[in-house]
Structure formats: C-alpha cells, structure tokens
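Task card 7
Instruction: Convert sequence to structure tokens.
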Amino acid sequence: MAKKRVLSGMRPTGRLHLGNLHGALANWIKIQDQYDCFFFIADWHALTSDYEETGAIQDYVRDMMVDWLSAGLSPEKSTLFVQSKIKEHAELFLILAMITPVPWLERNPTYKDQIVQLSNKDLSTFGFLGYPVLQAADIIMYKADSVPVGVDQVPHIEITREIARRFNYLYKKKVFPEPEPILTESSKILGLDRRKMSKSYNNAIYLAESPKEISSKASRMITDPQRMKKTDPGDPDVCNVFEFHKLYSDIEMVTEINEQCRIAKIGCVECKKKMSENLVKALEPIREKRDYYESQPEMVEDIIRTGTTKADKVAKQTMEEVRAVMKI
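Output:
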C-alpha cells in the first residue's frame, strides 16, 4: 500500500533556531518513515516580508539545507527541494489567484497578526496579502494528503482546502485532494526574553552556534519575573529556563530543579548553567554533522538537485492536468 504524501516548507529568512527545531523540524524527522515526504525551502515566500533585502536569501537557502541534513532529514527518505527552482509553483499560483476571493485572504488571522508584529516593514503588498494562495499552490501541486502544522496554522490549511475545492468545482473534475492538517505537538520553547523565539526579536538560540555562544545566551535568559533575589522562592511553572530543562535535562535533574527552585535552594545563575551544559551536549551531534556538510558543499548542491528533479517531475504532471481541465 502506497504511503500517504505529506508536504511542508520553511522560509529561508535566517539561520534555524531551537524554535524551528521544536516547532517543525523535529516532527518532520519523526514522520519520514511513515509518509512520502516532500519538504521544500520556500525562498519565494521569503520575499513576502524581505523583498527589499534579497541579497542574503540564497545563502540562507544553503544554510537551511545544511541545518536540515544536520538535524536528521534524509534525502534517501524525503524529497528535499527549493521552491524557486520549480517554476510551476508560480504558474499554479497565478491560476489560483484568479479564482480566490479577496475576503478569504483578508480574514486570514496570520495576515492581521503579522501586520502588527512586523510594523517596521511595509507589508501592504499584494504578495503579502496573497501568500496563502502561493502556499496553496505549493501544497496541492504535489497532491499532498496532509500537512504537518501546529494548531495555530490550521487556518492556513483551511484556506488551501477551500481553494482546492473551488478549483475542482469550477472545472468539473477533482484534480486536487483537500489536504488534512496533521496536528503536531510542538514543545513550549520561547526566546531569551520569553517572547516567541524569532530572528526578528533577536532572542533566538541558533543550531549553528558554538558552545560558548549558547552559554552566553543562556546566562541572559529571563526566568521567573517575580523572583528578585536568590533567597526568594521561585515558580518553575512560569520559568522559561525550566522549560528548556524539561527538554534537555534528564528526569532526575528536572525533578531536582523543580523542588530546589521552589524552596530557594538553587539560584537562577546555577540553574541556567546546568541547563546550558545539557543543551550544548544535546546539540553536539548536530554541530558535528553541520561541520561535515559545511565541508562538502558539492554534496549539498547534489542533494538539492536530486530532490528538485524529483519534485519537478511531479509538478509538471500536475500542471499538464490543470491545463487540460481548464482547456488552456
């Protein structure tokens, strides 16, 4: 029995950080054996917010592929490719844009949220408003059965389902399946300042950082905001460092930290030091693989070419079917 197909992508807007790892990448790695996986670097999507400064995008593309491989995505198990290398994405985006009602895009909650969060950028563009249409093209191009997402991204998949449904209705043939979301559990991991970990907020710990850099950043992490002195009892339930402990420390240390913090038997400085040591150790295999792939640029390029060739074949077949039912 054929595996069901899954598709997802990431925008190359900077180096990958722990939020990317726990929010998406770790789940992708887990499902590689279960599904026929297509994972792509969404460099055209990066233009929606970074259209004024495009010079670094290609470097970010290469860095992202290196991070993916270092973390555990396998080109033997998954199709790994770059969006812009397959021009059919742009063609299908154009066609879907013609049939997508504007109110569907204006009600997108992420659109409204990003306008507020990225107030330092001019996002009053057609490309930013219409990015869910490009996203829909990315997904249904490969007739994906499912898309792994967090619960906050389910509205994106619903727009894709509506667009696929509308296309099938207008042209009297079920060309596209309506992809289902695969709800993935993402670990609660925030940035150094307790906001969402993001390059834009300058609060991230990156996969490529050295042990010294990680330790330095960990020392600046905000803990329990009510704990002013070492002698004050703390509340691990509101401490971001403790959330990192739950991910990177063994159960004995987690239990010990939980108990000692509540009775002021351990201070925040020592707590951060213990956590950063475990974090550095946990990321060591990724750093080692990253050093290897960094030294093999031709291998990385070959992986991108191979994945792109496979994805391109599927995209061309889909677009032949689209043109046929539309009679264009």
